[in-house]
């Protein structure tokens, strides 16, 4: 079999997805056996013009990590889409919008104000902001345009497969590599991972769920054997796709939802509202006043930020109305 | 330009509120025509997803009506709704959705007049707010 041509790209992301690929250790040798890497800005010295010079659909598979929030990121996403047979949204940001997607609680003007004026480490009395065009002695300089709204990859180009996770786990990356090596890819649209919610694979004991106090993770040391929700810690497991082998749970930390919603769930935040509200104040529910119920729910300090931590751009309401 | 007419999706429970609305109709009481009723078996059946979907599809407001507390046909259904709503509303506020666009209230089968007054009141509040902004930022800068 001829070697596959593989491209790896990052846009609005932290670089953790690229590191996750290296984390596959010896698996990376199998990748090198089956594929030639033709583009990987973090590791190899190929440039955009090299990609532009390729014929259409020349790249067999493109692993694209990061969300899309600038004109340049959209251009590259479209370029790589045109040059690739198979596009993979790799990691939470490309899959769901990810942590950069939290920027959808603000807009460009507000984000610039925070980053270039208000932030404690910033000294910018003249309020200088990045411009798309700047004239200097040497000529005109251009920067990409920065958008108000962060998007997931499939909101910009067609995507064949999704590798969830922040970052994706080695077993899930291996599933993709093995499928590629065997030439046996699943149906288009497949999200690698489990088809069930994380609770299904969570090793903790689960009993009757009824709580009246919410703890933030730094406020208590949780019992490592017992369901975190039953201990009053917000765990996004009930509204999150499994397949990560409960790695945060095993480190005694709650799930933060990076694998996105399980199949059949369109909105992770809405499901978490149901999950938390159904157990918080369940005991003696008939004796609780509306005011007390409100104070119970107010213990959840930041519902939107907590429930949509990784997926605001792909939620039903995908940004704050401003 | 014609005046803005709010579109409000109303989830009405089968056992009390839908019958209250029916009573208002058979008694020929007049109410604002802005609420589109959807009959559900219990206000507890109204998942937060339904409410988000209503907004996603262009509703300007969502009204959820159930039996009075203690009167639920399923004993506890409306207590679930009572707990869900403040958390959902807090989340919606963070997404820039005004509090008045979502209302949970109780209407029994005998309270046709109460149904009318809730509908009229909510319609005017949503009218004052104006249309729900769909993807307001998408037009510029992506």
Describe this protein's structure.
The complex is a heterodimer of chains A (322) and B (142). Chain A is an alpha/beta fold and 322 residues long. Chain A folds into three domains: 4-99 and 150-181, NADH:ubiquinone oxidoreductase-like, 20kDa subunit (Rossmann fold), CATH 3.40.50.700; 101-147, no CATH class; 198-310, no CATH class. Chain A has eleven helices and nine strands. Chain A has a five-stranded parallel sheet, sandwiched between helices. A two-stranded antiparallel ribbon of chain A has the order 4-8. In chain A, helix 2 (27-34) runs parallel beside helix 7 (170-181). Chain A is globular, with a radius of gyration of 22 Å. The termini of chain A are far apart. The model of chain A has no long low-confidence stretch (mean pLDDT 94). Chain B is built from four helices and four strands; from the N terminus they run βαβαβαβα. In chain B, strand 3 (61-66), helix 3 (77-94) and strand 4 form a beta-alpha-beta unit. Chain B has one domain: Rossmann fold. Chain B has a four-stranded parallel sheet, sandwiched between helices. Chain B has 142 residues and is an alpha/beta fold. Chain B starts with 7 loop residues before the first strand and ends in a 13-residue tail after the last helix. In chain B, helix 1 (17-26) crosses helix 4 (112-129). Chain A binds chain B through residues 69, 71, 74, 105, 107-108, 145-149, 151, 266-267, 269-271, 273-274, 276-278, 280-281, 285-286, 288, 290, 293-294, 296-298, 300, 302-305, 307, 315-322, and chain B through 47-49, 51-53, 55-56, 69-70, 76, 79-80, 82-84, 86-88, 90-92, 94-97, 132-133, 135-138, 140-142.
Write a short abstract of this structure.
Chain A is of the alpha/beta class and 322 residues long.
Number of domains of chain A: 3
Q: What is the helical fraction of chain B, as a range of percent?
A: 25-40%
Mean pLDDT over the residues of chain A: 94
Q: What's the CATH architecture name of the largest domain in chain A?
A: 3-Layer(aba) Sandwich
Q: Summarize the largest interface: chains and residue counts.
A: A-B, 47 and 35 residues
Oligomer: heterodimer
Structural class by helix and strand composition of chain B: alpha/beta
Runs of chain A in which pLDDT lies below 50 for 5 or more consecutive residues are none
């Amino acid at each position: 079999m001829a070697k596959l041509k593989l491209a790896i790209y990052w846009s609005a992301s932290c670089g953790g997805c690229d590191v996750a690929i290296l984390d596959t250790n010896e698996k990376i040798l199998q990748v090198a056996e089956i594929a030639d890497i033709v583009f990987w800005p973090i590791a190899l010295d190929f440039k955009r013009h090299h990609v532009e010079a390729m014929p259409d659909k020349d790249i067999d598979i493109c692993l694209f990590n990061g969300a899309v929030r600038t004109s340049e990121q959209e251009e590259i996403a479209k370029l790589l889409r045109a040059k690739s047979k198979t596009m993979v949204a790799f990691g939470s940001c490309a899959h769901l919008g990810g942590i950069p997607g939290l920027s959808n609680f603000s807009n460009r003007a507000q984000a610039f104000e925070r980053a270039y004026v208000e932030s404690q480490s910033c000294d910018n009395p003249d309020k200088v902001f990045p411009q798309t065009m700047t004239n200097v002695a040497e000529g005109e300089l251009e920067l990409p345009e920065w958008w108000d709204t962060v998007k997931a990859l499939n909101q910009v180009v067609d995507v064949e497969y999704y590798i969830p996770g922040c970052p994706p786990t080695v077993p899930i990356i291996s599933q993709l590599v093995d499928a590629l090596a065997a030439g046996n890819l699943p149906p288009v649209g497949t999200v690698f991972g489990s088809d069930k919610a994380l609770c299904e694979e969570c090793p903790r004991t689960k009993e009757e769920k009824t709580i009246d106090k919410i703890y933030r993770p730094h406020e208590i040391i949780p019992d490592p054997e017992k369901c975190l929700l039953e201990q009053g810690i917000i765990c996004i497991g009930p509204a999150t796709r499994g397949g990560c082998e409960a790695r945060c749970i095993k480190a005694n930390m709650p799930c933060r939802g990076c694998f996105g919603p399980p199949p059949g769930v369109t909105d992770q935040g809405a499901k978490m509202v149901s999950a938390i509200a159904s157990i918080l104040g369940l005991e003696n529910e008939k004796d609780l006043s509306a005011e007390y119920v409100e104070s119970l729910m107010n213990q959840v300090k930041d519902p939107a930020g907590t429930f949509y931590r990784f997926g605001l751009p792909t939620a039903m309401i995908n940004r704050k109305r401003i | 330009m014609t005046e803005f007419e709010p579109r409000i999706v109303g989830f009405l429970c089968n056992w009390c509120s839908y019958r209250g609305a029916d009573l208002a109709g058979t008694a020929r009481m007049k109410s604002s025509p802005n609420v589109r009723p959807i009959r559900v078996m219990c206000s507890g059946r109204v998942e937060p997803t339904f409410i988000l979907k209503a907004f996603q599809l262009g509703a300007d407001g969502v009204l959820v009506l159930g039996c009075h507390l203690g009167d639920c046909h399923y004993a506890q259904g409306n207590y679930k709704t009572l707990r869900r709503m403040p958390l959902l509303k807090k989340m919606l506020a963070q997404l820039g959705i005004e509090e008045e666009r979502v209302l949970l209230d109780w209407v029994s089968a005998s309270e046709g007049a109460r149904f009318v007054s809730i509908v009229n009141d909510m319609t005017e509040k949503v009218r004052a707010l104006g249309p729900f902004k769909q993807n307001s930022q998408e037009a510029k800068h992506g």
